[in-house]
Design a protein that fits this description.
Distance between the termini: 28 Å
Shape: elongated
Radius of gyration: 32 Å
Number of helices: 34
Strand content: 5-15%
Structural class: alpha+beta
Length: about 850
């Protein structure tokens, strides 16, 4: 193999570079296809039964994306100036082509503020835009409304929401539906070859069309922001909603890529200049880093592989790891130049490659194993991140052992003297500590392991969206206002089955009787249950859109979704008058009220909307008295269609004998534990409220995202063992020793666990990025152990003296380990410049883990070698 390598790359370096440049040119052309993806469904758990069921329900309805403008004043909203300003904003917004409708404080239906009957309201719905409305009475009605208080208007009367209903794109909806249907067949392994070809075409067509719509959506959002800026008034105004979050996230990713790229580039130049103090040793590794980074971007473009929030740091990580590998090669080459000055350039380069190829190969493979563990997560962007880094590390290794040696061969042999080698006092200090205070090193490591175990036991997985963004971002400001003043950000839905399917009774409305294994959401589908609860056209619209005021509450509950209302209304009116009237029984209403009030009394829950909200508005007309069954049926028949569509239809399904309660969780509560809240809700509904498990379905964005994080946590705990086993096997193959495998793994495992323990003790929750720290840290930090042990074995064979070998290794490979570790530490620290909090935490905590791994590699690792004497 070495002869072949010498005869090809080293003997023909110019041709090697020409070939590499040809490959580089090909993939450079495809860098123009490099894409970013910040869609909400990229953060969901593929294969989750609740998600699949939710998507199936969502596909039945054509709902609209919503943007939300929060409008806050210092005094009162009910002034001529505020009304005029809101009207101006609405007028400008109505002119935009892709906006379907705009709902403001001025056109919500009022029931009590005008002295007209319900019958008259059928043709003349009253609102604040009408000149005959008494503002004082209207304010009193809205501020005390079970429906609109803390939903459209805050309880202090100083904040309201302007809701922008974005027009649907029929082609996009059809493409997505066709793609999802065939994707489901693919997951179920029932897809035919013809359908597979169709699916491949649909995926490509959908991707192209989605990019086109994303560009248009970005233009719309910028236009809306321009309208807000042109009409500032005296209010504090923020834009929110799923579309804005997705669009802003793309901007964040672009910004991060630029900041990380420039930051890492400057860092690489500074690092190389400090280490080698020579221009050629700055340029040579820099060329290798540039080559591998552009090649990787081109590969992503060629494969039509979008970068997401999670994988946005893939290029930065590649640059850091490429630099690390090149530093190892450069340090070894310079050492050989110093120690064997009589060798010619080809012999020196060949010897460098021979000495470094095995440890570098195994370090690359161990890091690949770590990133491959992410593939088992079931979450598409995490899986993609794992595959991207696998390809990136392969590119890094190949580049380092082709381009770097080929360029060296075109240069003259370097002349390196002992005086030119910069001493590192810290490395010598660590060597001295290892030799003279070895027992203290072992004791310290043991104590840290105990403390770490305590910290790890306190780790928790959380999913607070608002905490993912910096406080100065528009996303954070908008979500904070909605959370504090408009009823909470994170949506949760409860569906009540009044005639649930059981093995004993099978209603005529049920398609199938679900088995005990079927999830809540699946049972909804199987029972043809509440189609009214569908919040958005896909989880991408529901999951992150609803976190801003709940697109479900304000999109389906307040805004008039004509197609939705017509379908439900047609279904309702097709039944007999008696059947419709007698659906509204006191037993059902009482059950809805009890469940509604239970959630209203939970401190974690903000706004609660259900049929009970509208019933209580009606009871105000009845002097506070409850309606009987006949009166409820009559009231339902008398309600104006517009009010019925917005206040009743979204919460009941007469055909399927169900009702829906919409909740929003106050996401910014400091002691909120979302998993525990879901467990408490499920327990209380079945044990305290005595409801059968199949009477209640708990669903929504909080459930789906919690499923994703819990799945990721479980998979990472399980795959951590896989990572350890894989790395241990690599050690066994490389060193052919169980003892050396243990010695090499222990310091790196300790480093990863210490960081997890610190997170637990500091109450830093695991999220979609920090949850991967342990596997990645072990995969990268183990490189230190491989290089150190490999060099220790080589030097020990020459002098057969452990202490002397330790000094030699610290002076040589110890220096390289120090340089590469510092490079990785500062490289990860650059991620702290991001606007995305999980990225910041990931960067800083991984940098901390690498620092601990560096200390362990130069103290605990050599101490274990001296103690066990494995050679």
């Amino acid at each position: 193999m070495s002869n072949l390598y010498q005869k090809t790359i080293l003997s023909h370096p110019f041709l090697t570079i020409i070939l590499l440049l040809s490959i580089f040119s090909f993939f450079s052309f495809h860098t123009q296809n490099f894409k970013l993806d910040a869609s909400a469904d990229s953060l969901l758990l593929e294969g989750d039964k609740d998600l699949e069921a939710f998507r199936e329900m969502s596909s039945r309805f054509k709902t609209q994306d919503i943007l939300i403008i929060t409008y806050s004043v210092k005094d009162s909203l009910f002034t001529d100036e505020v009304f005029k300003h809101i009207t101006q904003l609405k007028t400008e917004l109505d002119k935009m082509q892709r906006i379907d409708s705009v709902m403001t404080l001025l056109n919500i239906p009022l029931l009590k503020s005008a002295d007209i009957s319900l019958a008259d309201m059928a043709t003349n719905v009253q609102n604040l835009s009408k000149p005959n409305i008494d503002r004082k009475r209207a304010k009193d009605e809205l501020m005390n409304s079970p429906i609109f208080k803390d939903l459209i208007i805050s309880s202090d009367g100083k904040t309201t929401a302007i809701l922008i209903n974005l027009a649907n794109d029929e082609k996009f909806t059809q493409l997505r539906q066709q793609r999802d249907d065939l994707s489901q067949k693919f997951r179920n392994k029932t897809i035919t070859p013809t359908e597979q070809q169709t699916l491949n075409k649909l995926i490509e067509e959908y991707s192209i069309y989605a990019d086109k719509l994303a560009t248009l959506r970005h233009q719309d959002i910028e236009n809306i922001r321009h309208i807000i800026q042109q009409n500032p008034g005296q209010a504090e105004i923020h834009l929110g909603g799923v579309a804005m979050i997705a669009d802003d996230m793309i901007s964040y990713i672009k910004s991060d890529l630029i900041v990380f790229g420039v930051g890492v580039l400057l860092f690489i130049i500074a690092t190389l200049a400090i280490i080698f103090r020579s221009l050629q040793w700055v340029i040579l590794p820099l060329m290798s880093c540039f080559f591998s980074a552009i090649l990787m971007i081109g590969i992503l473009g060629y494969l039509d592989w979008s970068v997401t929030v999670i994988s946005s740091n893939v290029i930065s990580l590649m640059l850091i790891i490429t630099l690390s590998m090149n530093i190892h090669l450069a340090v070894r080459y310079r050492q050989l130049c110093r120690d064997f000055s009589d060798l010619d350039q080809q012999q020196l380069v060949m010897e460098t490659v021979n000495k470094m190829v095995r440890p570098c190969l195994y370090t690359a493979l161990t890091t690949i194993i770590a990133f491959m563990s992410l593939v088992t997560s079931g979450i598409k962007p995490v899986i993609d991140f794992g595959w991207m880094m696998t390809i990136g590390l392969s590119v890094t290794f190949i580049t380092s052992f082709t381009l770097f040696p080929a360029i060296l061969m075109l240069r003259k042999k370097s002349v390196v003297t002992q005086t030119e080698e910069k001493e590192l006092p810290l490395v010598h200090v660590l060597a001295s500590i290892t030799k003279h205070h070895g027992n203290k090193v072992i004791a310290t490591a043991t104590l840290l392991a105990i403390i770490t175990a305590v910290g790890i036991s306190q780790l928790r997985v959380e999913n607070s969206f608002i905490d993912y963004f910096s406080k100065d971002t528009e996303i954070y400001k908008g979500m904070k206002i909605i959370d504090n003043k408009l009823g909470g950000t994170t949506p949760l839905d409860i569906v009540i089955n009044f005639n649930p399917v059981t093995p004993e009774t099978t209603p005529t409305t049920a398609k199938t009787t679900p088995s005990p294994e079927i999830t809540n959401s699946e049972q909804i589908i199987n029972d043809n249950t509440d189609e009214d609860m569908v919040l958005d056209d896909e989880l991408g619209d529901d999951e992150l859109g609803d976190d801003e005021l709940g697109d479900d509450e304000l999109g389906d509950d307040i805004l008039e979704d004509d197609e939705f209302a017509e379908e439900e209304l047609t279904s309702s009116t097709s039944k007999s008058t008696d059947e419709t009237s007698y659906w509204f029984t006191n037993e059902k209403i009482e059950k809805i009220k009890v469940i509604h009030d239970y959630f209203d009394n939970l401190p974690e829950i903000g706004k609660v909307l259900s049929l009970a909200s509208s019933i209580r508005v009606g009871e105000d007309f009845n002097d506070g008295k409850a309606f009987d069954t006949f009166e409820l049926g009559m009231l339902y028949g008398l309600l104006p269609q517009e009010i019925k569509e917005s206040l009743i239809v979204p919460y009941i399904s007469i055909e399927h004998n169900q009702s829906r309660i919409s909740l929003r969780v106050i996401d910014s509560l400091p002691d909120l534990r979302r998993k525990e809240l879901l467990n408490k809700i499920n327990y209380d509904l079945t044990h305290k409220l005595k409801l059968a498990p199949n009477e209640i379905v708990v669903t929504g964005m909080l459930v789906m995202y919690n499923n994703m994080l819990q799945s990721l946590f479980t998979s990472q705990i399980l795959t951590l063992g896989f990572v350890m086993l894989g790395i241990a096997l690599m050690f066994l193959v490389l060193f052919k020793s169980f003892t050396l495998s243990f010695i090499g793994l222990l310091p790196n495992l300790l480093a990863a666990c210490i960081v997890l323990g610190i997170m637990g003790l500091a109450d830093i929750p695991l999220d979609m990025m920090t949850i991967t720290i342990a596997a990645i840290t072990i995969g990268i930090a183990v490189d230190n152990g491989i290089h150190y042990i490999y060099r220790f074995r080589e030097e020990f064979a020459k002098n057969n003296d452990y202490l002397k070998t330790l000094d030699i290794c610290h002076a040589n490979i110890g220096k390289a380990v120090f340089y590469t570790s510092i490079t990785i530490i500062f490289g990860f620290s650059i991620l702290s410049l991001s606007n995305f909090i999980p990225t910041i935490l990931f960067g800083l905590l991984t940098a901390l883990a690498m620092f601990i791994a560096l200390l362990a590699a130069l103290t605990l690792l050599p101490r274990l070698i001296l103690l066990i004497k494995p050679f």
